[in-house]
Each structure stands twice: as structure tokens, then as C-alpha cells.
Design brief:
Blueprint (H helix, E strand, L loop, with lengths): L10 H9 L3 H9 L3 E3 L2 E2 L13 E3 L14 E5 L3 E6 L16 H13 L6 E2 L8 E7 L2 H12 L4 E9 L6 E5 L2 E2 L8 E2 L10 E10 L2 E8 L6 H8 L25 E9 L6 E5 L4 H11 L21 E2 L1
Parallel strand pairs: 7-14
Antiparallel strand pairs: 1-2, 1-3, 4-5, 4-16, 5-7, 6-7, 8-13, 8-14, 9-12, 10-11, 12-13, 14-15
Helix pairs in contact: 1-2
């Protein structure tokens, strides 16, 4: 006997049947923001509302233009835009002229949303294997202003990292100058008898596992590879870091460099408006954490996991 599907019906089916529409038309109304479920706009045709949920259709509501690009927007206004960079994607192309970059996706998004040729100003960037929040300027003036903000280190940036081993103490500061070449053509900590560029990283342990630590990091300065170099210097490289770490994760099941730019906050130059954005941990990072949590408990007292409240997701476009 064939199995009977008793799961709740999809939203597009409910809208089609209730308002006498074709499934295609109902999906169009949902995706353009004209359908509410229990008083809140829902733009997912495949959503399965709870039994008895109030479904309404407002044909007089202006349609929301849908832009189909692989981009998650955390904040957007006339002057700047903050988006999420997935791991494995370059912020901008190199000499190899890669076609798929975060800048390229943002250009596509803005040109489709507003038409014409948008201005996308680079303010800062993340390493290819690092995920998280990145801000771009939408005018030359704002680009210069935001770059100056970053130069003054007047930006709140918090990262989350899974590091190899048991990082001690629970909180502290790593303050070591950095050099472009430590002797093997790689960036690193300046030798004691050599001057480098000042770099300060504050850390706090968030959760401990057997053979690994989840740590929150706040940058006081923003040097290239600063977090990765400082943590490796302390003997606890970022899991999966092939340059400054073991590359194998030190026993941590890391599919890539486990570093995520979780929070980005600043006051907009000129207006003084406060912008605070939070980027949720990507799925691969969460999977590594769950794998570590299933490991046998450490023999010593473990710290209670620190779970932050779920931030608002950036909208998927």
C-alpha cells in the first residue's frame, strides 16, 4: 500500500486553492511579498503554515522586486551595504581574474535591484576561507569615510574560531607586532629584535571540547591574517588553517579554516547612525561544533557552553 502524505500543505497550494489562482500565479504573489501568514509577510512558496494559520493576499501591496543572486544581505541603505561572504569565495578577484567573487555577486545584485551600473567601493576584505560579514560603500565619498574608520580601528569586529587544543586562560589579550616576512616568505610575529606593525587581539573562550576550543575574538587592530597568526603564535592555530596551522585541524574535523566574522558594528560617518550586523554561523561550522560536542567529556571540569541568542538572518536574494 502506498504511503499517505499527511504533512501540512505548502503555502503556494493553499493560496492557489483559497483564492482561485494557478500554482504559478500563487508562487509569484508569495515571492513578491503580497501574502501574509498570521500577520507576517512570507516569501517562501514551500512554507508549510500551521493548521489554522491566517492566510491573506493583498493585491494592492506594491510588489517587492526579487533579485536572484547568491547573496545574503545583512544591512542596506543608500550609502552602504553589509553582506555575508561564504567560505571559499574570494572577496575580489586576483591576478587569475576569477569570475565568481563577492564583489561580482554584489554588482549583479545592485544592478538588478536598482538598474544601471552601481558603485561598489571596497572597504575591507576577508580571507577566502573565512566566512562572515563584509561592508561595501555605495559611493566614493562613503568609501573614503569607511576606510578611514577602519584605519582608526573605530569599528567593532567580533570573530568566532575553533582552535586546536585547550586555549588558556579563559580570556586574555595577544599583543605582538607582525611582519610581512618572518623569514620564510610568510607573515608572522616580529622577532624580539625586529620592529613590526602593532597588532592587538582580545579573546574569550566560549566553549571547550576534547582537543579543541571555541573562542570569540575582538580586533583592536586589523592587520592581514592577524587572528590566524596570533593564535598560531600561542600554540593554538585555527582548525583547518593550512598556512599557519597543521592543515589537518589537529584532530578537529575541519573541512576548511574555522574562522567566521560574526559581528560588524560602527557609526556611519556623517550621519552618526549606528549599524550593528550579526552573521550566523554557516552550516559547515555548526556541523563541526556538533561533532565536537559529541566527543567524550574532558576529565576536568568543562565550562558551560555559551549560546548567544539567534540573530536575525540576512535576507536571501
Amino acid at each position: 500500500m502506498a504511503a499517505v502524505d499527511i504533512s501540512p500543505p505548502r503555502l503556494d497550494r493553499i493560496v492557489a486553492e483559497r483564492f482561485g489562482l494557478s500554482r504559478r500565479k500563487s508562487r509569484d504573489y508569495i515571492e513578491t511579498g503580497r501574502v501574509d501568514v498570521s500577520g507576517k509577510t512570507c516569501r517562501e512558496p514551500g512554507e508549510k503554515p500551521a493548521t489554522g494559520a491566517e492566510i491573506s493576499l493583498d493585491l494592492n501591496r506594491p510588489a517587492v522586486r526579487t533579485v536572484r543572486t547568491s547573496l545574503s544581505v545583512l544591512h542596506e541603505d543608500a550609502d552602504l551595504i553589509v553582506v555575508e561572504k561564504p567560505a571559499g569565495l574570494l572577496t575580489l578577484s586576483t591576478e587569475a581574474h576569477e569570475k565568481d567573487t563577492l564583489v561580482g555577486r554584489l554588482n549583479t545584485y545592485l544592478s538588478r535591484r536598482y538598474r544601471g551600473r552601481p558603485y561598489v567601493g571596497i572597504v575591507h576584505r576577508l580571507d577566502r576561507e573565512t566566512s562572515g560579514a563584509v561592508v561595501f560603500a555605495r559611493s566614493r565619498t562613503m568609501q573614503r569615510n569607511l576606510q578611514e574608520l577602519f584605519r582608526r580601528h573605530d569599528v567593532d569586529r567580533e570573530y568566532l574560531a575553533i582552535v586546536e587544543g585547550a586555549l588558556r586562560p579563559d580570556r586574555g589579550t595577544i599583543s605582538r607586532e607582525l611582519v610581512r616576512d618572518r623569514g620564510d616568505r610568510r607573515r608572522g610575529v616580529a622577532p624580539r629584535n625586529e620592529r613590526g606593525r602593532p597588532a592587538v587581539t582580545h579573546f574569550q573562550v566560549r566553549e571547550r571540547f576534547s582537543g579543541a576550543t571555541l573562542v570569540s575574538l575582538r580586533l583592536e587592530t586589523g592587520r592581514t591574517h592577524q587572528i590566524r597568526i596570533h593564535l598560531a603564535f600561542r600554540g593554538h592555530p585555527v582548525a583547518g588553517d593550512a598556512v599557519y596551522g597543521s592543515g589537518t585541524g589537529g584532530g578537529v574535523p575541519a573541512p576548511r579554516q574555522m574562522l567566521h566574522a560574526a559581528r560588524l558594528g560602527f557609526r556611519v560617518p556623517g550621519s552618526g547612525q549606528r549599524i550593528d550586523t550579526t552573521s550566523r554561523l554557516p552550516a559547515d561550522f555548526e556541523r563541526v561544533l556538533e561533532s565536537l560536542r559529541r566527543r567524550p567529556a574532558l576529565p576536568s571540569r568543562q565550562e558551560r557552553p555559551v549560546r548567544s541568542a539567534k540573530p536575525t538572518r540576512g535576507r536571501k536574494t
